[in-house]
Amino acid sequence: MPKRTRPAAEDTIPRQWALVRLMQSTQKGLTALQLANQLKTPKTNVERDLQVLTAAGFPIRSVQDPQHRQRLLYSMGADASRTTVGFGAAELLSLYAATSVLRFLANTPVHMDLESVLQKVRAQLADSPAKAVAGLANIFTSHLRDFVSYDDEERRAILDDLLDAMARTRKVRVEYQGADAKRAKPYTLWPLRVFAHHSALYFFAAVENRPGVRTFAVHRIQTLELLSETFATPKLDLDAHADSAFGVFIEEPQDVEILFAPETARYILERTFHPKEHKQQLEDGSVRYRVRAGGQHEMVAWVLSFGGAATLVTPVAWRREAADRARRAVAVHT
Prior knowledge:
Low-confidence stretches: 1-10, 80-84
Largest sheet: 5 strands, antiparallel
Helix content: 25-40%
CATH class of the largest domain: Alpha Beta
Strand order of the largest sheet: 6-5-4-3-7
Structural class: alpha+beta
CATH architecture of the largest domain: 2-Layer Sandwich
Distance between the termini: 67 Å
Number of domains: 4
CATH topology of the largest domain: Alpha-Beta Plaits
């Protein structure tokens, strides 16, 4: 097999994110070799990333190493004169929209960086335009309900270390308490990718010495230790892995069919519940919904949330579970 000379996008983006963090953390600067050693990647990758980030407008400062005349030290320059503000109203509005939608991440590194961007934009605008920009905040509101908060200091620290571990492909040791577990269990994880679902953060990770990839909830991590040992990213398609689930639970995909009554047709047709779903409106106005995905517990609960306006046709085992749970619901409400 020929040697890969250019990194794939899924390798490049987290490495560049980690590279920016490293350069922000140093005042005197680091050499390309030092950056490469910290990121556990070849020096050529770092040199290429520095060129890409500089071309993209990142204020990267390079100065001659006083100990070696032919070597440069890299850091993130504090000089704002290299940064120009060329945002239009729609682009600024999108930033405010992002901060509103992601309000459940308040005081986390992600949300704080977004807020920092807006503050820097306002600082570089004249007084009148700055007031107009601030007024854009009134167009969007977060209206958060049913969300997980990451405002707690310990939870923020866990999230920051987890993101850092993903960027640098470092192992973590966690104490994790599952939703139905009575006590936390220890795991050594290879964290791969974080994602948001129903205003909460989850992540895919490989459990050391166990096959496959599992889903973990960030808010259920009780403790996290960032280890110095790195791991080799598994050769798998995480996008396809995510598509195999209806929600967050990764299970063996099943061929699912649900029949929605005419009174729910508009709601079902106007929304996307899964990227690989198929919807067909029938002559009587009802909607036949088909998808191949795992997540029995989540999908049964979803069907039952429509009351008698949704029928879980297949799989048969899931249909039986829906009937059993419906009978128990009737029993406690009569």
